[in-house]
Amino acid sequence: MVDKLHYCSGCQQYTMHDKCPKCGTETHIPKPPKFSLVDKYGAYRREVKKKKLIEKGLY
Ligand SMILES: [Zn+2]
């Protein structure tokens, strides 16, 4: 069973193979997106900032 999805940077397509069946380029396992995590913390920081502004009566 193949459970890992590979990505061909040549075709910009996902494949189950170590090598792209279309162009023969070695595929790699894409890294999980990090921006969602960063955005999550960014939203948290904004929320904290907002609360501080509310406390000071500036919001
Ligand atoms: Zn390819």
Question: What is the CATH top level name?
Answer: Mainly Beta
How many domain units? 1
Q: Detail the poorly predicted runs.
A: none
Helix and strand element order: EEH
CATH architecture title: Single Sheet
CATH topology: Rubrerythrin, domain 2
Summed up, the helix count is: 1
Main sheet summary = 2 strands, antiparallel
Mean pLDDT: 85
How much of the polypeptide forms β-strand, as a percent range? 5-15%
Number of strands: 2
- Strand line-up of the largest beta sheet: 1-2
Helix fraction, binned, reads 25-40%
What would you call the structural class?
alpha+beta
Name the overall outline. Answer: rod-shaped
Q: Which distinct ligands sit in these coordinates?
A: zinc ion
Radius of gyration: 21 Å
CA distance, first residue to last residue: 55 Å
Structural descriptors:
Rubrerythrin, domain 2, 59 residues, binds zinc ion, single chain, alpha+beta
Helices and strands in order, then pairings?
Elements (H helix, E strand, L loop, with lengths): L5 E3 L4 E3 L19 H21 L4
Antiparallel strand pairs: 1-2
The structure holds zinc ion.
Zinc ion (ZN) binds next to loops.
Structure, explained:
This protein has a single domain (6-55), classed as Rubrerythrin, domain 2 (Single Sheet). The longest helix is centred in the last third of the chain and has 21 residues, at 35-55. A two-stranded antiparallel ribbon has the order 1-2. It has 1 helix and 2 strands; from the N terminus they run ββα. The chain has one helix spanning 35-55; strands at residues 6-8, 13-15. With 59 residues, it is of the alpha+beta class.
